[in-house]
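Annotated sample (chain length 201).
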Amino acid sequence: MPMLGIYGSPRQGANTSILLDSVLRAAEEAGSKTTRLFLKDMKYAPCDACGGCEENGQCVRNDDIAHIYALIDSCQTVVLAFPVYFYGPPAPVKSFIDRAQANFQASRLNRQDGTNKDRGGAGYLLAAGASKGEKLFAPSELIVKYFFDAVNMDYGGGMFFRGLEGAGAVLRRPDYLKMAGEWGYHLAQQEKEPLNQPFPG
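Output written by the structure step:
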């Protein structure tokens, strides 16, 4: 099963995109197959709490979300990357996460009829921000943890990068790029032989 990298930044040359590239390249070099998904190229609407998914766990909207979540379901490892805006994910990422409500409802219905199965796999967060605030990533990490729970994956942890102001700023931080590459290698090794070991970096 491939490792999926979800690019959540709405702009070109984004620091999180550059970092995620480093993660996936290192994973590929370690033998993992990878797939890349750019949310900015997808077309989907935010959840409007219509309740349509409550009866059968299926979203009533006909847009790219069905393709995105089918791709997630086909992968053993998912790395979601985005910049932090006002201590949370940017709007396109939050809208994408909110649409996991249908997945949550499907799991609820499957638990009720006894057909729910642990699909295995783990999801991770890669986030970056300009601020150096101690709790800069705490709200995003909590959101992402429950997102991965909704898609029936464990949350495996995150890697966070502070002090990146402006597109491409990470290119002046070879230490950050090195850390991202080492993390990608670690994730590839986890896929081969799951150790449930946190990344030591």
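Annotation: Residues 3-192 form a domain with the Rossmann fold fold (CATH 3.40.50.360).
Annotation: The radius of gyration is 17 Å.
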